[in-house]
């Protein structure tokens, strides 16, 4: 039987090994090698798509592939591998998103221990997450290359070749084909780019009628098509079917919403299954082809604009898009035309999420560059019959004419959001932007101003729902917006007039239960709704920009209270206060200076404050985030990474940014005393933190048995209801006066004991 500390150490080393790899195949090979080594197995293998993709234990080129695949896919605890006798076998399944199996085997028939089986399952889970992350990173890199090629007006053929190659590398299928309509004969489609076909195959299928093959089917259906048995489809291309293609998937390439080609992948493996993620990946690359085609075929038209004087009067000087005046004029004409015919007009109101952070963090020149690129992408993803405009600031809008239903309007909004997914170069940084889209559909005698207002209201609802999405206007939203603006005004008043207060939750040393710090948690004493918790108003503060004065007040009040406790002899001289900092606050110019000012104002040393950040700050602007964090570190305050393990953190970020404390998320603590997997993952986090010389703090501790287990695995600090709920200053002062908070039973086993 192996100890829990041994399993946690092995899992931590496995995580470090696969995370250090630079590509998917390297991660798979490292995983097999490390799993076999950890479990002292002579043989290891990894099977995907029914094929052996990595193995250890055999000389290169002499692996018994068929035997290893059969053993990996079996459920028997023992098996014969090749002609090497009987082996004890252990397997763990995972999805990356392709169903896969990680297998290790030891010579002989002595079974693996349950703790070893649990370790292999944890390793498989870590591997699946790592491979998924590598695939997402690879996809973003490929899309960025394609977008840059389009932006540079690279030759269309070069862009199409890059799309076909990127699709092949991401999906791993043996065959990729990209077809476009023949401009001289629209009834025929011509092969424009291929991967995995020889010259004879290309010659046999270079031209085919629209509707033939899976690509033709995708064009006819104007949507994704998947064939699980290619030869049995009536429109299958005979040369491809005869070559043995088994499964295939095709997505349409569109120009102004009309299919003008297709992007197809195919495999000779009968067991090949296309997951939802892989289907969406193909559609994304097909959309890139659509963008390239629209760009190539509209660039000449953009040069033949109306005369310069009219253009300057009715277009935004920065982006070249129609301005508000021209937009409203075209909207009025569209509504008038719709009233004479049986068609519908819709408006998309688009607002860039967190644009202020770009202007404040990178400067207005970088902000202008971002707006220009957003405008370019927006212009590319709408039809020529529609109107895209910049209304002012970071607000854009689109008039959609001849829309049959709200489904079509939502699809148009999705195209806009998809077009903004690729990072945008702003100044010296690549910035990931999102947007919130409000959709309003004209009905009856709707006027242009009312329709635009309704779309604006729906946009605010989209932001309130989490940003990065779209919402269709409904009548009750207008009243809700009025109420929300009143709520924002009340919050602003509360910040100015003392309507807020802080509650504090103790942070204790797990070894002796001694309070070492408190976390400051803001509350709002609302005049009609009573005492509100942060989740009831902090989100609204972030959207309205009130998070900046709110955060400043919280920091100042927390420092004032800690200084008062120290002056009164209530708090230990080393007691610190922990304060949450949002991404918006962190990226504000002069944030470190504001922290220094608060410390000086209340006579506190920098060691008296810990600033907590969440993992979401890492995806905003890593370069600027690093500068802000190092400025705080140079000031002398400590930094804690909150909710570790639930967001975007990685070993690279932990090495790059000056974090002092990892706060282990409550989801890892809830079952730490009863679930072997959760205990192993928590232990791995503690070991990882120790290797990086970081402290660990367990959040959400509620039971004595959790405390016992956390002590066993070496966690240093904890907070949660077991030690005390967040309380007003007067109540928490009594807690701070104790030598120790409630104690948990000492563990019966030492760290090295078997479990």
Model description:
The N and C termini lie close together (8 Å). This protein folds into four domains: 3-132, GAF domain (Beta-Lactamase), CATH 3.30.450.40; 152-302, GAF domain (Beta-Lactamase); 316-473, Reverse transcriptase/Diguanylate cyclase domain (Alpha-Beta Plaits, 2-Layer Sandwich), CATH 3.30.70; 487-736, TIM Barrel. It is α+β, with helices and mostly antiparallel strands and 755 residues long. It is built from 26 helices and 27 strands.
Label this structure with key terms.
755 residues; 8-stranded mixed barrel; 46% helix; disordered C terminus
Q: Which CATH architecture of the largest domain would you pick?
A: Alpha-Beta Barrel
With helices defined by DSSP (H or I, 4 residues minimum), what is the helix count? Answer: 26
What coarse outline follows from CA principal-axis ratios? flat
Radius of gyration: 30 Å
Distance between the termini: 8 Å
Could you provide a short overview of the structure?
The chain has 26 helices and 27 strands. The protein is of the alpha+beta class.
Topology of helices and strands:
Elements: H1 4-19, H2 24-38, E1 43-48, E2 51-56, H3 65-73, E3 78-80, E4 86-95, E5 99-107, H4 114-151, H5 156-171, E6 175-182, E7 185-195, H6 199-205, E8 207-209, H7 213-221, E9 225-227, H8 238-242, E10 247-255, E11 258-267, H9 276-303, H10 308-314, H11 324-340, E12 346-352, H12 355-362, H13 364-380, E13 387-392, E14 395-400, H14 406-419, E15 424-426, E16 429-431, E17 435-441, H15 448-464, E18 470-472, H16 476-497, E19 500-509, E20 515-526, E21 530-532, H17 538-544, H18 547-567, E22 576-580, H19 583-586, H20 591-601, E23 609-614, H21 622-635, E24 638-644, H22 651-656, E25 661-664, H23 666-669, H24 676-691, E26 695-698, H25 704-713, E27 717-718, H26 729-736
Parallel strand pairs: 17-18, 20-22, 22-23, 23-24, 24-25, 25-26, 26-27
Antiparallel strand pairs: 1-2, 1-5, 3-4, 4-5, 6-7, 6-11, 7-8, 9-10, 10-11, 12-14, 12-17, 13-14, 15-16, 19-20, 19-27, 20-21
Helix pairs in contact: 1-2, 1-4, 1-24, 2-4, 4-5, 4-9, 5-9, 12-13, 18-20, 20-21
